[in-house]
Amino acid sequence: MSVDWKGAGIDSTTLSEGRENSAVAQFRRARIVATVTTPRAGARPGSSRPVDLEVKDVRVIFAPLWQALEEEVGREHLRFPKEIILLGGAPGAGKGTQTDFIMRARGLTCPPIVMSELLTTPEMERIKAEGGMVGDKEAVAALLRKLLDPTYRDGVVLDGFPRTPVQVECLKLLVERINHLHAQYADTPLAIHFRRPTIHVMVLFVSEGTSINRQLGRGREIAEHNRKVVETGIGTPIELRPTDLDEALVRRRYQVFKEQTWAALTSLKQLYHYHFVNAEGPIAEVQDNIVQELKYQSSLELDPRTFERVRALPLAEELVLHARQELVKRLDSYELEHPDLLAQIVDLVGTKFMPIVTRHALSGRASVNSEDPIFNNEPLAIPMLIDLFSERGYHAVVDKQIQEVPERFDLKTGQITCRQKVVYRIQIFFKASKIRRG
């Protein structure tokens, strides 16, 4: 038997040697006490300390939970969110502050799932009050059931999971099962309920000093708020966690994060969309970083079949990448190859269009109707017109309208003879004039 201790937790698949080939081995959980050499504050080089290590077969935890869930709701009702944003970070990194912003950035309207709020039995509360973490089995069981809530069908922000290596492995198994359901129902009427999941891992990171200061500062603010509520009877008390008042517990929370949660989150870097956000700066700066990290990428989020269908259409950013160079090239080609036509369009814009545009300088929008035959007779006339306005800083949109105009009426037969009139409606947009108000 070997134990892989990496400083952030235990590799839960270490019972590889001597595993019994029996059903009993699949359901056993071994608990060992090992002495490992690991540095700690103030320890001399070469010193060691006993560490209580719980070695678990992750499938032993996950499989019974999944089986019980499937038996309870039925396989066709195991419908999980299309998008899961795993929000992790050091204590005081601002997860609570940034959660709403992240949800708006991804267009999610459902409330976040906060793991600490799911784990609220008296025993669990005692463990959390001491700065520790609730067991993996209980955390995973509560999460699986919560994720089936139809409220989260399109997507959800999950605050506080995974926090341990075992929870990481359970997450992998969950995604594996969701992908299996996606494949199983892909060609059935239920396919829309079993879409390929998109997993984002977003880590908000701050240094130990920042974390400690923010936690203790938050505790002081809450304590002062609650004191005023008691004195005045105005307002509602806010829950004050013991870990926000005791510096030793505050430090312990950060150490638990660095030794367990940090390693658990970074281990997902190669598997899912991983976003590391420096949360040390001002809120606005952190939010800018979050927006950049969560930009939509169709190739990563759409079902492969959907992406193959739409990828033939060019991206807007590809079109505009060389737009200026292409505009210059076209205008120069007009001058070299069609100088007379270009001169006519420039004259038309200057004499017929610009007087109208000038009168709308305050609004930044003008509309001009034209029946000039040049637009019917010269295929390049409209492209030239649009390019000329673009070069001068305007945005022009042309709409061709064909109208039936009565020309003759036969009194004997009642037949009406019409002629077609072609009207080009050109809308010109530009930055409006700023005027002083008041």
Provide the descriptors you would attach to this structure in a database record.
3-stranded antiparallel sheet, 5-stranded parallel sheet, 10 strands, alpha/beta, 438 residues
Q: Can you describe this structure in just a few lines?
A:
The protein has 438 residues and is α/β, with parallel strands linked by helices. 46% of the residues lie in helices and 17% in strands.
Provide an overview of this structure.
46% of the residues lie in helices and 17% in strands. The longest helix has 25 residues. It is an alpha/beta fold.
Q: Find the count of extended strands (DSSP E, 2+ residues).
A: 10
Largest sheet, in brief, is: 5 strands, parallel
Radius of gyration: 33 Å
Oligomer classification: single chain
Low-confidence stretches: 1-55
Q: Strand fraction band?
A: 15-25%
Structural class: alpha/beta
- Categorize the overall geometry: elongated
The helix/strand order is HEEHEHEHHHEHEHHEHHHHHHEHHEE
Counting H and I runs of at least 4 residues, what is the number of helices?
17
Helical fraction equals 40-55%
Give the averaged pLDDT, no decimals. Answer: 81
Query: In angstroms, what separates the terminal alpha carbons?
Result: 82 Å
In what order do the strands lie side by side in the largest sheet? Answer: 4-5-3-6-7
